[in-house]
Amino acid sequence: MKNREFTFTMIKPTAIRFGKLVPILDEINHAGFAVIAMKMTRLSKAQAEKFYAIHKERPFFEELVSFMSSGPVLAAVLQKENAVQEFRKLIGNTNPQSAEEGTIRKKFAISIQENAIHGSDSDQNALIETNFFFNQFEIFSNNESFL
Ligand code: ATP
Ligand code: MG
Asked: Which of 25, 68, 111, 129 measures 20 to 30 Å from 41, CA to CA?
C-alpha cells in the first residue's frame, strides 16, 4: 500500500442531530478507513463561508452556510489507499435521490443540502481542508506526524 494516502471528511449537523454519527462512523470503519485525526466542533458562519468559499456564487450558498453552522460537525482525517476516490465512492452522489444503493448518503442523507457527510474531491483539497481543521500537533499516525 502506498503510504500516506488520506482524505478529509466532515459529518454534517443534521446527521449528528438525528443520531447518525456512530452508524456513519461504523460504515467508514467497515470500509477500511483508518482514523488519523478526529474532532467534534461547531463552525461559525464565517468559518462555514470560508470552508465552502468555492460555492459562494451558487444560489444555495447562504442556506448552505446557515445549515453548516447550525450545530456540531465531526471532522476527521482518514487513511486508505486511493483515499479520496474510495471515500467519494463510499459516500455517493451529492443528491441522495441519485446516490447509489449502499452509500452513506443513500442511507443517511435527508436532502441534497442536508446530505449527511462531506468528502474531499482531490488530494490538494484534502490537504487544504485538513489544515483548515487540524494543526500539526493533532495529525499523528504510529507516533509520527502524518502530513
Ligand atoms: P461535499 O463538498 O459536501 O462533499 P459534494 O462535493 O458532493 O459535497 P458540492 O457540489 O461540493 O457537492 O456541494 C457542496 C455542498 O453544497 C453539498 O454537499 C450540499 O450540502 C450543498 N449543495 C450542493 N448542491 C446543492 C443544491 N443544488 N441545493 C442545495 N444544497 C446544495
Ligand atoms: Mg464538494
From this structure: 111
